[in-house]
Specification:
This protein is an alpha+beta fold. It has a domain at 128-177. The chain has helices spanning 45-59, 155-177; strands at 11-15, 21-25, 34-38, 41-44, 70-72, 77-80, 92-93, 99-104, 107-112, 123-124. A hairpin with a 4-residue loop joins β5 and β6 (77-80). It is globular and about 60 Å long. It starts with 10 loop residues before the first strand and ends in an 8-residue tail after the last helix. The protein binds zinc ion. The site of zinc ion (ZN) has 6 residues, from loops.
Length: 185
């Protein structure tokens, strides 16, 4: 990991408090900067699908479960960033991120969404959908952390899902005492 090539003047790679290895601002970064390019292998959507499934199967039950490095480039191609020349793959997810991915002229960049202090950990929202959200617990530590890694568009729905689940659990516990009560569905 110490041999990771540094492809941006703004970054350094070291151990993270959020999760595993992280990427940090080596110098201060102003808002709207191309902080680092997310590079990787250009693959078709079909190959992308195959790799995602293979990775999930391989990592089942291990710590790296859910670590998917594939980014959408356009309608036809994705970028698989799981290569050693891509330190941006170590950037952690956060519910309150300071960067966001942006495709500019067929290249993926992480752009700063606000001013970032020297030494601050870089993060972006991984933008996962809600399928299997329970496999992607979030420990970003942000005040407004929603508990799982998913795009902000899904937060309202996620909160409902969590509430529903809590309710079901409560009902199930009650049901053990009073089996007469029928849960309405
Ligand atoms: Zn979070």
């Amino acid at each position: 990991m110490g041999r990771e090539p540094i492809t941006s003047k703004y970054i350094e790679v070291r151990e993270s408090e959020i999760h595993g290895t992280g990427v940090f601002a080596r110098i201060k970064v102003s808002k709207g900067k191309k902080v680092i390019e997310y590079v990787g292998e250009k693959i078709t959507k079909k190959e992308s699908e195959r790799r995602s499934v293979a990775l999930i199967e391989k990592n089942l039950g291990s710590q790296t479960e859910g670590a998917v490095y594939i980014f959408e480039l356009n309608k036809r191609y994705d970028i698989d960033g799981n290569i050693s020349g891509n330190p941006a793959r170590f950037i952690n997810h956060s519910c309150e991120p300071n960067c966001e991915p942006n495709v500019i002229k067929n290249r993926i960049w992480l752009i700063s969404t606000r001013k970032i202090k020297e030494g601050e950990e870089l993060s972006f929202n991984y933008g996962f959908d809600l399928d299997g959200y329970e496999d992607h617990e979030c420990k970003c530590g942000a005040k407004k952390c929603v508990g799982y890694i998913t795009s902000e568009d899904n937060w309202a729905k996620l909160k409902k899902l969590i509430a529903k689940k809590k309710n079901k659990k409560k009902k199930a516990e009650k049901g053990k005492k009073k089996s007469k009560k029928k849960a309405k569905e």
